[in-house]
Amino acid sequence: MAKYVAVAGKGGVGKTTFTALLLRQMVHQKRGISILAVDADPNANLGEALGLTVTSTISELLEQTKDPKAIPPGMAKDIFIEYKLNQSLVESKDIDLLVMGGPQGAGCYCYPNDLLRKHLENIGENYDFVAVDSEAGLEHISRRTIPHIDVMFVISDSSARGIRSAGRVHDLIRGLKSAVKTIYLIVTKTNEESMDSLSEEIEKTGLTVIGDIPLDPKVVEYDLAGKPLYDLSDDAISVKAVDSILKRAGIFI
Ligand SMILES: Nc1ncnc2c1ncn2[C@@H]1O[C@H](COP(=O)(O)OP(=O)(O)OP(=O)(O)O)[C@@H](O)[C@H]1O
Ligand SMILES: [Mg+2]
Predict the structure, then answer these.
(1) 238 CB less than 6 Å from ligand 1?
(2) Which of 58, 63, 164, 202 could potentially form a cystine with 104 if both were Cys, beta carbons 3.0 to 4.6 Å apart?
(3) Residue range 88-96: mean pLDDT, rounded
């Protein structure tokens, strides 16, 4: 069974940056394994961070199946949905990518939720490693469209408010009673003093800190230039920080 890793946290804390660098390190450190990235954020931009072109999201494709006239004559609706779901996979040499997209029209995936869950379960079986860039509300985790999670990284930026918010995400995850085996906190965009000054707030969350990712001028530069973070070099501060976090968390094993 694939190892599932998910990344959670409030808006703008650095989830996509971390997920992209996590995937980069998986490709570099574990050559030959099959990797699926899932962008579960309605405001999807993991593809951009990975340098992959996304043509359609799952929710757009599901929307198309709502029109009865779109279903080819003689084809059952769930077979048609399955066919559409299969079209949504972006394939590349090292990483495949699924983009969930935002809820369309009246608000939710509703009917196809079960089909989506089954699809993700089936597709997950084709990979050794699955990484999910979650949306802030953890909808796909609470609805269990994501089958199970081995390691959840909760991301906070280096503000006290960010840490308190990570604490609430932690409570939310515990409240879901979903199958999340291990949860770690990562603090991003840190400077030399950040971890000391935040230690009290961190303790209150009950989360275990697995490491921090310093504010990296290279990440800022790539962001401004619209360059994929996946192309950062091995000596970038953020890449080195993510690599040591993943080693400590036992992700490469
Ligand atoms: N270690 C870092 N050093 C410098 N800038 C960073 C770092 N991590 C993230 N950023 C910047 O912070 C901003 C938000 O990062 P990112 O998009 O990864 O956050 P997010 O949690 O995925 O946001 P959203 O909730 O909008 O999806 C981006 O401009 C990114 O370049
Ligand atoms: Mg993001």
Answers:
(1) yes
(2) 63
(3) 94
Looking from the CA of residue 222, the nearest atom of ligand 1 is: 31
Question: What is the pTM for the complete model shown?
Answer: 0.94
- Residue 7, strand partner residues: 133, 153
**Ligand 2 centroid from CA 20, angstroms:** 10
Q: Distance (Å, rounded) from C-alpha 231 to C-alpha 124?
A: 26
Provide, rounded to the nearest whole percent, the portion of the chain with pLDDT above 90: 61
Pocket mutation for ligand 1, best pick of 16, 43, 155, 213 (most atoms within 8 Å of C-beta)? 16
Each residue of 172-185: pLDDT tens digit? Answer: 888 876 678 899 99
**Residue 15 in contact with ligand 1 by CB distance below 6 A:** yes
Contact criterion met (CB below 8 Å) for 54 and 44 = yes
Is the distance from CB of 134 to CB of 140 less than 8 angstroms? Answer: yes
Residue 96, pLDDT score: 96
